Amino acid sequence: ESVPSVQVWCPKELKRSPRDITELDVVLAEFEKIAANYRQSIESNVCRKAIDGFCSAFKDQITTLIVEVQELKNMKKKNAKAITDIKKKRQRLLQLREELIGAEPKLIKLKKEYAEGQERKSALRQATELFTSLRELQQDCLDYAEKNSSQKVVYGSSSLPALLVESRRILRAERHFQNINKKLEKALTVQKEKISKKR
């Protein structure tokens, strides 16, 4: 335990608190007391000067040791803090690595789903173009029938009017495919946002 009456020796360039007191501080304080008392008991100026020189040299040695001990203590504190920080950062890196490894299969799956969605989108685009052509063809046929209303229309399995009647059913299916495509695009957008957030 530290002695309350002992003053902690501290130069301006070195910060020390009462918790940093060591045996060297105790030795220095006691030595200065003994030296001061002994100096007062000596009448010879020559002896006093000799005592002052010895005390000064001794104090220099003790204070040098105090500074070295304190600097070593401060260095140990900094090293301990640096080691703790390194451990925390290493643990965080390992955690991120595990998260990245875990996200890789999901990314592969999403890429596959995206490719499939693109294929479906392309097929739907082609179907839409076909439906548009059929609609134009139907309108042309209706225009022709209106201009030639006197002619009797014969429906056969391969006749153009029969195909146009069938196209009406196909055109109704077009809207169904468009709804499916919108849902697929929405699902892909949600999956992309989830991946970007995890990164």
Automatic annotation (TrEMBL):
Keywords: Centromere, Chromosome, Coiled coil, Nucleus
Coiled coil: 72-127
Name the record gives this protein: Centromere protein U
One cellular-component annotation, GO: nucleus
Key word Nucleus present: yes
Organismal lineage: Eukaryota, Metazoa, Chordata, Craniata, Vertebrata
Major site of localization recorded for this protein: nucleus
Classification via Pfam families: CENP-U
Entry's localization field: Chromosome, Centromere; Nucleus
Family to which the UniProt record says this protein belongs: Belongs to the CENP-U/AME1 family.
